[in-house]
Amino acid sequence: MPKVAVVKTTPKTINEDIARVMELADYDKFVSKDVATSIKLNLSWSKLYPACSTNPYIFDGLLKKLISDGFDHKTITAVENETVV
User: Fold this and answer.
1) Distance between CA atoms of 8 and 85, rounded to whole angstroms?
2) What whole-number percentage of the chain has pLDDT above 70?
């Protein structure tokens, strides 16, 4: 069964906290390094709006965790649907 995990973070510990929350959620049971991985970004606004846009620090931490866990960076793709709100 999928899990939800929550970790309190700070600007200094964000990458470690993202890695920790992914491990707590057992993400590797649901995401395989053997296939291409798409990461859906939320970029519907022309400006960065907290809670509406993908936070670049979260995206960076996610990429670092995936790559450190053996995902091939060449098979990770960020995607967006070009919807304008």
Assistant:
1) 30
2) 98
Shortest CA distance to 8 belongs to which of 60, 17, 54, 59? Answer: 17
| Alpha-carbon gap, residue 37 to 55, rounded angstroms | 19
Average pLDDT of span 4-26: 96
Indicate the domain borders of the chain: 14-79
Whole-model pTM: value is 0.86
With cut-offs at 50, 70 and 90, classify the pLDDT of residue 47.
confident
3-state helix/strand/coil string of the chain? CCCCCCCCCCCCCHHHHHHHHHHHCCHHHCCCCCCCEEEECCCCCCCCCCCCCCCHHHHHHHHHHHHHCCCCHHHEEEECCCCCC
Please choose, from the candidates 64, 66, 43, the residue with its C-alpha nearest in 3D space to the C-alpha of residue 54: 43
